[in-house]
Amino acid sequence: MKKISVLHYDAFTEMPDMGNPAGIVLEGEKYTEEEMQKIAKEVGFNETAFVLPSHCADLQIRYFTPGHEVNLCGHATIATVIALKTNGHLSEKEIFSIETKVGVLPIRINQNKQSSPSIIMKQVTPQFKEFKGAHRELAEALGMKESDLDAKNPILYGNTGLWTLLVPIKELHAFSKMNVNNEMFPSILKEIPHASIHPFCLETYDVNATMHGRHFSSPYSGTIEDPVTGTASGVMGAYYVTYVNDKWNNEPIIIEQGQEIGRDGRVTVLVSERKGQLDIQICGTAVFVKELKVMIE
After folding, report:
1. Same structural domain for residues 75 and 151?
2. Which residue among 6, 98, 105, 179 is least crowded, i.e. fewest CB within 10 A of its CB?
3. Total structural domains in the chain?
């Protein structure tokens, strides 16, 4: 049996036990891919991140759900960079490059004397694809009625690192009633069966927030719900600028998530346009909770 130290950080919050938990293994090169998967399953968080050396960037991060490896994870990236910085594993420079399965991404650390440093993370260029499935079945999988869907805005697959189905909902009160059946997802998401589902609305609990969301995991990931999602928030920002607010003028987009499950968190999405394409960055912080010890064979 091997005993592994895993750092538990909560991302997109400065309060322990809020936001989104991530497991972090600082010496990931010690473990095989099979062992990484076993560790992630034992930890049980939506993602556990493994830090490894890189030949093309300052460091490499690999991300595992309890069920499989994923290409990118926003909250685990931000938590990992905070962990590395606060534990003295990073130099004093502000910009670092991180090798991921979607390519090398720049990370900026904003130091703040009054609070934890915040991390600005670039995402990949947004993509959208048409959803051709039945709206009634989609609503049923979320434990809702089709009439709860907001027909004014399109239901689309979106990607700034991972594919998720963006589902506009009319009213905020519907989110607390959601009773999801993840096992139905692949049969409904015929175009991208491994996608997650991300309902959102323009009503918010926090008057300073722009949008509210929940994030329900693909059944292949081994989890049910992701409390506060970085990559899905990034693509929500792209969706907002592209389909919702034609008067948007470069202001930050604040995404709130996690309130229905007691994990209140915030993601700031920064959107800019360059050469006819949207550039997406997410911004957030993370807080140390505790050190976990897990055992694997």
Report:
1. no
2. 179
3. 2
Tell me the residue range of the domain where 118 lies.
2-122+284-296
Do 95 and 168 reside in the same domain of the chain? no
Tens place of pLDDT per residue across the chain (297 aa): 999 999 999 999 999 999 999 999 999 999 999 999 999 999 999 999 999 999 999 999 999 999 999 999 999 999 999 999 999 999 989 999 999 999 999 999 998 766 678 999 999 999 999 999 999 999 999 999 999 999 999 999 999 999 999 999 999 999 999 999 999 999 999 999 999 999 999 999 999 999 999 999 999 999 999 999 999 999 999 999 999 998 898 899 999 999 999 999 999 999 999 888 999 999 999 999 999 999 999
Query: Is the separation of the CB atoms in 190 and 158 below 8 Å?
Result: no
List 27, 34, 35, 47, catalytic entry? 47
Rounded to 10°, the helix 74-86/230-239 angle is 120
Strands in 26-77 per DSSP E:
48-52, 59-64, 69-70
pTM above 0.85, yes or no: yes
Is the domain of 161 the same as that of 279? yes
Residue 130 is among the residues annotated as catalytic for this protein: no
**Local structure of residue 124 (DSSP, 8 states):** P
